[in-house]
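[job 4471] stage=fold_predict status=RUNNING
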Amino acid sequence: MDIVALILLIIGGLNWGLVGLFDFNLVSFIFGSMSILSRIVYTLVSLGAIWSITFFFRDRILSRYTAEESR
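[job 4471] inference complete, writing structure tokens
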């Protein structure tokens, strides 16, 4: 799941980079402006971003768990 979320974030980041630099939306170009397919892509990218928020907390939780386990 982590790799899928990372791939989705890369796709989203590259798309936003193209929008910011060249005013070119690759997702809209491929799937059409706000078509059902483009909305699915945007939704998947946002779910990948939400999942990736957990990356910030994993090290803290794992380090606490292993510290308590070693006592």
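[job 4471] summary: The chain has a mean pLDDT of 90.
[job 4471] exit 0
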